[in-house]
Amino acid sequence: MNKPLRRVAIFCGLLVLALLVRDNWLQYVRADELNAHPKNKRVQIERYASERGNIIVNGKPITGSANSGDTYYQFKRTYVDGPMWAPVTGYASQAFDASQIEKIEDGILTGNDDRLFFDRTLSMFTGEKKRGGDVVTTLNAAAQKAAFKGLGSKTGAVVALEPSTGKVLALASTPSYDPGSFSGYHDKDAKAWQALEQDKNKPKLNRALREIYPPGSVFKVVTAAAALESGKITDINAATDTPEGWKIPLSTKPMVNHANGCANASLNEALRVSCNSVFAKLGDDVGRDKMVETAEKFGFNEQQFMPVRAEASVYDKKADRGGNALSSIGQFNTATTPLQMAMVTAAIANDGKLMKPYMVDELRAPSTELIKKTEPEEMSRPVSQKNAQLIQQMMENVVSTGTGTNADLGMPGMKVGGKTGTAQHGEQNSKRPYAWFIAYAKSAQGSPVAVAVIVEDSEGTNREDITGGGLAAPIAKAVMKAVVKSGS
Amino acid sequence: MSVVTNTTTIGAIEAPSRRNTELVLLAFAVVIPVFAYLNVGLAIDGKVPAGMLGYGAGLTLLAGVAHLVVRKWAPYADPLLLPLATLLNGMGLVLIWRLDQSPRLIDLAKRSYGTFNPSAPNQMMYSAIGIAMLVGVLLLLKDHRVLQRYTYISMVAALVLLLLPLVPGLGADVFGAKIWIRVGGFSIQPGEFAKLVLAVFFSGYLMVKRDALALASRRFMGLYLPRGRDLGPILTIWAVSLLILVFENDLGTSLLFFGMFVIMLYVATERTSWIVMGLLMAVAGAVAVGSTASHVQSRVAAWIDPFECLKTAPEGSNMAYACDQMTQVLMSFGSGGILGTGLGEGNSDLIGFAANSDFIFATVGEELGLAGVMVFLLLYGLIIERGVRTSLAARDPFGKLLAMGLSGAFALQVFVVAGGVMGLIPLTGMTMPFLAYGGSSVIANWALIGILIRISDTARRPAPSPAPNPDAEMTQVVRP
């Protein structure tokens, strides 16, 4: 009987071998695929198994972690002033993933990042519980508060930058949402999420970064820069050869001016009172390609990562002459994020040097040891120093005697430059226009803040009263004031 | 080759008893699970678990008693079987205890039954009963050939055991499989015991009938077909397997019995045609049942592509449940990777119910990784190998067949469970010997080890030295 016995023994060996091979297939070959499978809850469990690190503004955390005692996801994200900071933090939800900084810096916040390997190993020996590292932002709490309060119940967004570095000081968007309302995975979280998803005011939309608006007259700053850079204008106080009722090329319509005294107005005067005809003609004179070049130097036509992604602003590269003329005054296909307009303002306030905007200053290990510090980085030089200062001069005129007087800080030694915009949109301009305001404050030491404000729609305001100067300028003023005050 | 080799279990004239080897191995088999226990405690609570001393003492006591009994009553037994079984049982206890600590499983139990009872203390008790069973086998069964006398009683007993779960009032339907009977407060899985009893019946029956089955056959298309009257028992076993499958929803047990029978038949008759026939009948039976029983169908669907099946299966159906379970098991293995997450630090409890019984191997996969699973598979492989060696070494055909049958059944069970859990074959819902939670399984498998130890003791026992023959010249003993 021994011969078949040996054969059966070999058969049993083959059975075990088959199991071994299968196991290697499963745990070695397919391990990564199974581990990363969307149905695999382990990533989520791991993410919430330990206390998440915090996002920090001015040394204080604006996030927190609560031990929910849940058997699946132990720690739950909490937010301090959730709606105010939502455009900065994004959300981290057990059921609905995460967004923005919470998502981008997830590795640091959960403590799983490779850069925290040393910390993890250390705490393995000291027996400390694992926790995540912190993300220190560049934001200024006072400015953020001013922006959020200023927007109030209106729909809109505010972006404030530090022109010399590109640091984001304020990033507000209204209406906002509380990321803490759906940070868990229970029914009430799902309900809160559903309600936000279905809300027609789109509270989850980050208007400061992800929405592109027609910029209207605030775009004239870019056109002015292009005119100066291309040499079409050398003296900002010289009269331009612009008839009142300048005819749009390839069209029979004349350009409509809301301001008076635009015929042959100088660049300085045209910006002060916001003449459409002068800037449309200037854009036409400069030509599409040069306009596109200047706009792109400011950051148009490209997504910005700071590190949260911002939508690409648009300056139409293929517009015909008429389209280009309209684009030059921020209409036609021109569209921009509030961040983009803040970048334009910051570049001008910084004497022509555009710094790459960023909002994560430092990443810190749980031991508060510094892991990474973001260094300010120059992005481009859209205008020369001389031309930038000329534009500053014109923008300061706008605030001192023009349409932007509401933004005047009235502080000694602090000059303020700005530009209003009232962008019409909708079919036949039927919708309530957008009120824009861009501004910067500047002292002899340089500019501490540049800000862009947009108010999309404001219930209870007469249509005629919706102007950049009336609605948006006071918000910009409050934000600048907060920055200047907190800086001194 | 030298005449006296100590590496085989085939008893040479001066075969060493190897009891001290066994003792040293047993020490490892106790120490390793105790460290594993400590490891789990540190991983979950961050402190030395309170029950460690008791656990260590209990395991030492059980292993010690078993060792002493073997030393006294089966001194020439294979030295590996007892340590291997002890190690597996000890690790099983640790894994079950580890799953007892899972808040998710506690929560699940509370929501489903209102209370949560930890399984580890029960399993410890079952292990003690299992060791008592081993001791009982060694004490009562002085010679395994005694079992030959009970050939036909065994058959009746096996059939009764197998059909008991179908008796109304006695059988209990647990998660769709009717393989349990409830006696008093205990539920017993009679199939586990039937495995042993059937092996005894097959051995006795085949030993007597092997010549008839092997020789009295007609040649047909290159195959030796047996006579109709010899075919009877095979068809009976086949039919009983199918009955179990159909009425008790127990794919694993029916596969196990039929496989065991075919293997033993082949060993007894040395005819390959039996294997061909056995395979054909197994396929026929599987197809017949697979195309009608929804239970089997959902298992097959979950096997072919669990992730896809999860999408297509109707919500809340049996199939969706089976597929979900399968995906959880696969992800458990995948998440373990090469080295595993470490004992106590995995999430294999996501599998839910039966995480500590049918799917306990997934916990090994996740927490000990590829390395750990391979170690466990090799431990099982070693048990099987020692069993087959015992069979080779056995001097009587009955002992050969019984040892082969038992180790073959053990091998099939390991393959069917591990293969099912790892998605190699459809899941059958059997338990990993020694590792999984369940009294019947632990007790029956200890009895199985006991019988193997007994046969190996008989096989390795040195033959009584021949009376000195004054006429003998100096001759060399040449063994076949």
Automatic annotation (TrEMBL), chain A:
Name the record gives this protein: Cell division protein ftsI
Matching Pfam families: PBP_dimer_2, Transpeptidase
The keyword Aminoacyl-tRNA synthetase is assigned to this record: no
Domain Penicillin binding protein A dimerisation: 52-135
InterPro entries: Beta-lactam/transpept (IPR050515), Beta-lactam/transpept-like (IPR012338), PBPA_dimer (IPR054120), PCN-bd_Tpept (IPR001460)
Keywords: Cell cycle, Cell division, Glycosyltransferase, Transferase
All residue ranges annotated as the Penicillin-binding protein transpeptidase domain in the record: 156-481
GO MF annotation, one: penicillin binding
Organism placement in taxonomy: Bacteria, Bacillati, Actinomycetota, Actinomycetes, Kitasatosporales
Automatic annotation (TrEMBL), chain B:
InterPro entries reported in the protein's UniProt record: FtsW/RodA
Organism ancestry: Bacteria, Bacillati, Actinomycetota, Actinomycetes, Kitasatosporales
Name this protein carries in UniProt: Cell division protein ftsW
Recorded GO CC terms: cell division site; plasma membrane
Membrane topology qualifier: Multi-pass membrane protein
Spans through the membrane: 23-44, 50-69, 81-99, 124-141, 153-181, 193-208, 229-247, 253-269, 274-293, 359-380, 401-428, 434-453
Alphabetical UniProt keywords: Cell cycle, Cell division, Cell shape, Membrane, Transmembrane, Transmembrane helix
Main location: membrane
